[in-house]
Known about the structure:
The chain is an alpha/beta fold. The protein has helices at residues 23-34, 56-67, 87-102, 132-149, 164-178, 189-198, 203-207, 247-256, 278-299, 325-340, 344-352, 368-380; strands at residues 14-18, 40-43, 71-74, 105-111, 114-115, 125-126, 153-156, 184-188, 215-220, 224-228, 231-238, 265-268. The strands form three sheets. It has an eight-stranded parallel beta barrel, surrounded by six helices. Strands 5-6 form a two-stranded antiparallel sheet. Strand 10 (224-228) and strand 11 (231-238) form a beta hairpin. The two termini are 38 Å apart. The model has no long low-confidence stretch (mean pLDDT 92).
Amino acid sequence: MHPDSAMEKQPTILSSIACNLDANILSAAFPLLEEGKVEALEWSFDTLYWAEQVPDWFTELLSAYSEQKRLIGHGVFFSLLSSRWTKEQQQWLQKLQQLSLEFNFDHITEHFGFFTGQNFHYGAPLPIPYTDITLRIGQDRLKRIYEACQCPVGLENLAFAYSLDEVKQHGEFLEKLIEPVNGFVILDLHNLYCQLHNFSVSYDELIALYPMDRVREIHISGGSWEDSALGPDQKVRRDTHDDSVPKEVFQLLERTICRCPNLKYVVLEQLGNGLKTESSRTLFRHDFLEMERIVKLNASSLSTRPNELFLPPQLLLTGPAVEDEPLYEQQLQLSQILETAPSLERARQLLAASSLAQSDWKIESWEPYMLETAIHIAQKWKK
């Protein structure tokens, strides 16, 4: 592999891939790495927190990008908005601190939301009410991530929402969350595509609600369609990362780059379970080359832009972790309902009888097909 050849020049926007210790991902990416096409790597570092041994060659690959400040870290398992501080989160931060001494991360990112499950560290992230206490919890956790890594910290927009009101409030809430750390946003365009489809909202209307000057990284990926029991025409778009990039997402990339004055990375993501065949790996490489084409075409007119560093102005942390017991109990109740409800109707009955009823969760306005999707997500990842 020859990553150095991709790093001899200094492009304004770096064409990157999400590359983890996964045989299928590495097989798909190897020709791109060997040709020096990959200008930066995004590594989901916490997937290897508990690995007994990491191969030397993989560490060397990470180090090659790290030495050029072209390695970015993407967290998966922190569960940012869980409202009780856990030992798993503390251990996560300790591991991140150790890794940050070993590798020179250009930035670290996490997902918005909380995970279902008894300890909130499994599954896929789901949304939480946009309240003052949620804001305080999220800001507290982001400060702790910064203290561990000592580099810019960002948050990814969420694909899933229960209602259109949630979708419209998401960008503003992300901006408030990252404000104390002077953080940035990963704008995942497939996540945006999910919301455009699932809530029949226009691109122009939705993109105007995001802080585009805060976008330092863009993700593109594929996903899947899920049928709904509510009718044959009610398909839900899911952010499953297990297929090639739809043409609509490439079109979103073309429309979005010029709106992001501080964009530095565009990252192609796909899970290894979607790259098991040679044809899927070939499609992955084609997707990368199409992404690279769009990036170069748009970056050529933006080459004089300065890049915002996104570092907090001062030391951030004081006092113990922010927690909220009533919100924690509601998260537990919601997880239990989503993981065990045998049907959509039963889930609605249980929610109506829970402490989430007539609360900031606004369950009364949740779209039934999105609640049904949340049940599928939670039960798929149930541990």
